[in-house]
Amino acid sequence: MFGVNKKLKGLVALAGLGAAMAFAAWFWFVKSDNNDNSLTLYGNVDIREVQLAFRQPGRVKQMFFEEGDAVTAGTLLATLDTQPFEDSLAAAEANVQLAIAEANKLRSGMRPQEIEQSRALLNQALASQANAENHFRRQNELLPSGASTQQDVDAARASFDKALAVAEAAQAALSQATEGFRSEDIAAGEARLASAQAALAQARTALGDAELTAPSDGTIIARVREPGSMVASQSTVYSLSLDQPVYVRAYVNEPDLGRIAPGTRVSVKSDSSDKTWGGQIGFISPRAEFTPKAVETTELRTDLVYRLRIVIDEADMDGGLRQGMPVTITVGATEP
Description:
This protein is α+β, with helices and mostly antiparallel strands. It has helices at 2-34, 83-108, 112-142, 150-179, 183-208; strands at 39-45, 49-53, 58-63, 70-71, 76-80, 211-213, 218-223, 230-231, 236-242, 247-253, 265-270, 276-290, 304-312, 326-331. The strands form 3 sheets. Strands 1-10-13-12-11-14 form a 6-stranded antiparallel barrel. The chain has a 4-stranded antiparallel sheet with strand order 2-9-7-4, with no helix packed on it.
């Protein structure tokens, strides 16, 4: 009987030890679960669209894509009628050629034949000056003897002065022909050439602007114009939804700011898929704001929060995250 009681006591002790071990395991699990440092945030995939337009006004000639078509960066989307731009380009090219000719003429100066002609005119003027000077001297010498009158002397003096002026003008013309044009004239000609070249560059740019290309990969979500439409400058032709990068806009309460930082890794999930996308926090606003109505959180909407941007990893960009989609963000557990 005594042996049986001893065995019962041993069984009770073993059962108590097992219960204690089970309680310890449960307590460790609950404590570990309560020490989970993960942070759950809520937000939406950013809506990133581009309104595509021509920089030049004109008539739409071609539209190559429909709504829903996927395009890549550099793809030609639409064109304008280029005839007006081609005409302007031809006129600008002609003005440049004219300005080049004028500038070269100013830099080169007079032709050799023009210089020789100026020299011949100077020699002719000098000969006339010498003849007028001799005639004036003779008339002046004959005046005392009465062989000449004062009127004749004055006429001879006037002829001499005129011949002298003609000779000086011919000398100046030869000097100008020899030295070339003034530096100010050359500078003005070069400035006119630069202006013509700038107008030519503008004409070429305008012709290039008659083509509308996709700035990046994306999907056409709106086709606003049709061929034949007259469009003004900056008038929207297509709306393009950008594929990359994918940004998520979320908000964090002020007490949780210390648990995140730019570069912190996060996981993103949506209600429409079981897939988890990886990303990292790229931006945290330095200014507090009220929680937007579109964001669902467990806190009161009047709480102040800080906006942050999450950049989805390029390797995870599979089209599963669509613009405007609500998502749940989980910041991984951190060291206590």
